[in-house]
Amino acid sequence: MNFICFDLIMVKIICSTLTKMLAKSYPILLLVISNVFMMFAWYGHLKFTDKPLYSIIFFSWLIAFVEYCFAVPANRLGHQYYSAAELKTMQEVITLCVFVVFSVLYLGESISINHIIGFILIFAGAFFIFKGPF
């Protein structure tokens, strides 16, 4: 009987821990989705230079609306677990990661060593926001 009670307590603790871990990662997932839409809203039109600017702006705003539908809940939910500075830092790191994939796969651009060094320095800054020694 004691073993069953102990097992139930352990299951409850494990489930509670997993639930919190998932809840903390949900805003990150929403930020990633938001950033994919953001890349297309801000940079997707670069492949359509023959289209009039007013139509590009209109369609970019439509895409940006979808982006906001993910970003705003991500920040609202995320603020339960992270500070505003941590959320902004995550946003920037996610933006860079999504941008690299987007620019290589969609725009066909290459990433230079200068870009990589710059990104590493930005990631170092993110480290200090979350785990810095000060």
TrEMBL record:
The keyword Transmembrane applies. Its main location: membrane. PANTHER family: DMT FAMILY PROTEIN. It is found in: Cell membrane. It comes from Providencia stuartii ATCC 25827. It is a multi-pass membrane protein. The keyword RNA-binding does not apply. SUPFAM superfamilies: Multidrug resistance efflux transporter EmrE (SSF103481). The chain crosses the membrane at residues 26-44, 56-77, 113-130. This is DMT family protein. Keywords: Cell membrane, Membrane, Transmembrane, Transmembrane helix. Pfam families: DMT_6. InterPro entries: DUF486, EmrE-like.
